[in-house]
Amino acid sequence: MSKRETYEARTEQLLAPIAEANGVEIYDVEYVKEGADYYLRAYIDKPEGVNISDCETVSRALSDALDREDFIPDAYVLEVSSPGLGRTLKKDKHLQKSIGQEVEIKLFKAIDKCKEFEGVLEGFDADSITIVEAGENEGASRTFARSDIALIRLALDF
Fold first, then answer.
1. Does domain 92-154 have CATH number 3.90.470.20?
2. Model pTM?
3. Please, what is the average pLDDT of the chain?
């Protein structure tokens, strides 16, 4: 396991009882370097959506737990927030909750001269993701290899 994966997994372990005690679920945890700074981000959610008070309460408790454990030697910025409306679907649990919803898929390389697709998430397995396309090919079912997908997220309709 990489340093990043170790930090994310350990943070998620610390966050689990805090999330449960505050009536929220863990959506994702990520440890990333942006520019010269490291960020430890915890995304929390609940059916009616999280508010600033939820984020503040979880952030304070998580910060205290991280200070006690002190397993990340680098300086970092802790952020606790909602995954947002256009949330990235990284894990199988995210995909499962999003079946029947409209998604945007961005590919590493073009298929039929196109790198971006939109449609309703129909299903997935360990190797592929299937959508029912919107737009020009509306209603057509299209399957993508997961290894070809750079990003999949919920589509925003305004």
1. no
2. 0.82
3. 94
